[in-house]
Amino acid sequence: MLREYVKQYFSQFDVLVISILFVFGFLWLIPDMERIHIWMALAIGMLSYAISEYLIHRFIFHMKPPKVRWLLTMLKRLHYDHHVSPDQLHLLFLPVWYSLPLIIIAGSVAFFITKDFSLMVAFVTGIMGYLLYYEWAHYIAHQPVQPITPWGRWMKKMHLWHHYKNENYWYGVTNPALDVLLGTYKNEKQVKRSSTARNLEQSDMK
Ligand SMILES: [Zn+2]
Ligand SMILES: [Zn+2]
Ligand SMILES: [Zn+2]
After folding, report:
1. Which of 63, 70, 123, 147 could be a cystine partner for 45, CB 3.0 to 4.6 Å?
2. Both ends of the chain: CA-CA distance in Å?
3. Cα of 57 to ligand 3 centre, how many Å?
4. How far apart are CA 48 and CA 41, in angstroms?
């Protein structure tokens, strides 16, 4: 059964593109593997994604619907519509027209700072590796299947609270670190059910 999920996951266009780029990045790094800085850049890339996962979800994906038409259309595809139809696969994964430009910008900044091509590749490979982990965790959270690890089961529960209990809490998908630090992690029983958890575009009309 897990095989079927793995197959469906990797047959998503956006996941496939990032996976291929991730493999190329990894292959590029093999001759450089003994450099400790390569591993540090990989780790920093992963950490950067883990932090932006929370910040982007909370402050951009959940911002009040913008008046500018194309921005609204973009946010609907990136997140609002995912809250309306959490099980729709074509709304679940971050599209490459969104993720790739951000990865390119992050890579350019890394190259500007380090002036080292391999360090830049390591940094973006770390970002893409964590992005794939995020997409997998998010995909499994919305499939009728129990994650294998206790951590996975906890994260899935937390993400479903975000969708079905109250969208103003539990923004982390792979980890609750920033939720705990910034006060959006609450005991689920002490949080009131939100009437706008399925319809983010209505949350500013109250
Ligand atoms: Zn979700
Ligand atoms: Zn798609
Ligand atoms: Zn959300």
Report:
1. 123
2. 43
3. 6
4. 10
